[in-house]
Design brief:
heterodimer, A: about 110 residues, mainly alpha, 5 helices, about 55% helix, B: about 375 residues, alpha/beta, Oxidized Rhodanese, domain 1, 5-stranded parallel sheet, 4-stranded parallel sheet, 15 strands
Chain lengths: ~110, ~375
């Protein structure tokens, strides 16, 4: 019985740690995330879904908390280009999240234009 | 009486003179035997040479250009020939094969050129037993249809420095070779993809084309050169020694790859190291300012080139591999993006960095660096 409680608690701890991966201070690579984020739209434009390589949502479109919610829910509908988003690895998503979070509207260094 | 005697003497002398002159002119008309002692005893023709010019060269054969290097060999020689100018023979005997039974074929500038004969005699005196001279030499070789000259590393460097209007073609595989390092200004047209990239060749069929690949053992540049000649290009050359000779040449000129101290973050350059480099040896790195042209116009490093990050993907081939490439911008964001673009699209290119720092550039080229908050 005790063993099962330990396993259950471990599972809960690990699950929540994974779940809050986006909620904690971002640990990805924001430089790489910026490149990967833009690459999504280059590929999407090449496929013909969008007309511009420029990502439609800028980091300053949301606050850091809002970016956390988007990535926790993995709700990328507003970004379009679903096939490209689905093809991203967890590491890619963490890098993109780190980039968007670090340059969010309420971040110490909000993204200006680039 | 005296007058008659004088007339007789005059006639006699005139006759003697006439006979003498006749004899002399007869002697002049006789052909003078040509001195051929300067010629080597074993002369071969182009067919013989063509049999032995192979890529890679047969290990048992050495084709030797006895002409002066700078004025002749550098700008055009028979492919696979090595340069041992006759004037330098004694100093360069170490370039000759150790096995004295190997076939040595000497050539120079044609039938009137004695250099190859002189060298052949010297080689024979050293004990080489199988020495020949291709007396008709380079002029005969290059006049044959489909033949093209090979050029030296010094000649290639000179054309690049002089910005000669030419297309330098790297015929090696792109990912594994070209991306890892190529001669500046070279375009990548792997021989295996020649037809696919034919649009990279100039429309002007008289324009100078120079092909190279991985050295004397590599056939790719020769195959591509032959294709170009078939297509009608009239000014085709091959740099047979290829990229290995280029890298060795740079090293000999003291331009060995510069060691760069990496910074804390992946791909970044150490900030203090960067500051020292751009201040003391700005030519040692290839600086790319990836900001927009209007930002670049307000001031940048004097040695920086401006390739906005949005245009970089199309211009990745422009990046040199003979020195470190360092991307810079105002905050490290765009330069970091540029770095990861290279990692993604030219992964074999290892000598690339970005400046992960706050950077303010002034019109006069001066700058202020600021460490970014962690």
């Amino acid at each position: 019985m005790k063993k099962w409680i330990v396993i259950a608690l471990t599972f809960v701890f690990v699950s929540s740690a994974i779940g809050v991966g986006f909620a904690m201070e971002p640990t990805g690579n924001d430089r790489k995330g910026k490149y990967t984020y833009r690459k999504v739209y280059k590929a999407c434009m090449a496929r013909g879904e969008v007309n511009s390589e420029t990502p439609p949502v800028s980091p300053i479109a949301k606050t850091q908390a809002e970016w956390v919610r988007v990535f926790e829910a993995k709700d990328f509908a507003e970004f379009g280009c679903a096939p490209e988003w689905e093809a991203l690895t967890d590491e890619d998503l963490l890098d993109i999240f780190t980039y968007l979070h670090n340059y969010a509207a309420d971040s110490p260094a909000p993204a200006t234009c680039k | 009486m005296k007058l008659i005697k004088a007339i007789k003497w005059t006639i006699g002398l005139t006759l003697l003179l006439a006979v003498g002159m006749g004899y002399a002119s007869e002697k002049a008309a006789e052909p003078v035997a040509e001195d051929t002692s300067w010629q080597f005893h074993d002369i071969v023709d182009m067919e013989f040479v063509a049999q032995h010019v192979k890529i890679p060269m047969d290990e048992n054969v050495m084709l030797i250009d006895a002409r002066p290097r700078q004025t002749k060999y550098d700008s055009g020689h028979i492919p696979m020939a090595v340069s041992i100018p006759d004037t330098q023979f004694e100093k360069m005997t170490d370039r000759l094969p150790k096995d004295k039974n190997l076939l040595l074929i000497y050539y120079c500038e044609g039938l009137d050129c004695r250099l190859s004969h002189k060298s052949a005699k010297k080689a024979e005196a050293l004990g080489y037993t199988n020495v020949k001279v291709f007396a008709e030499g380079y002029p005969k070789w290059i006049s044959a249809k489909g033949h093209y000259p090979s050029v030296s590393v010094e000649w290639v460097k000179k054309q690049i420095d002089a910005r000669t209007d030419m297309v330098l073609v790297d015929s090696r595989p792109r990912r594994t070779k070209y991306d890892a390092g190529h001669i500046p200004t070279a375009v990548s047209i792997p021989d295996s993809e020649f037809d696919k990239h034919i649009d990279l060749l100039p429309q002007d069929k008289d324009k100078l084309l120079v092909f190279y690949c991985e050295g004397f053992e590599c056939k790719l540049s020769h195959k591509s050169a032959a294709r170009a000649i078939e297509m009608g290009y009239t000014n085709v050359k091959v740099f047979s020694e290829g990229y290995p000779a280029w890298a060795a040449h740079l090293k000999s000129q003291g331009q060995a790859p510069v060691a760069v101290k990496a910074g804390k973050n992946e791909g970044s350059i150490d900030i203090a190291e960067f500051e020292k480099m751009v201040t003391e040896h700005p030519e040692s790195i290839y600086l790319v300012d990836v900001r927009d042209p209007d930002e670049f116009a307000t001031g940048s490093f004097k040695t920086a080139v401006n390739i906005p990050v949005d245009e970089l993907e199309k211009k990745l081939d422009m990046l040199p591999t003979d020195k470190p490439v360092v991307f810079v911008c105002g905050t490290g964001a765009r330069s970091g993006e540029a770095y990861y673009m290279v990692q993604d699209l030219r992964p074999a290119m290892k000598n690339v960095y970005y400046l992960d720092a706050g950077l303010t550039l002034k019109k006069d080229g001066s700058f202020v660096l600021k460490k970014l908050p962690e």
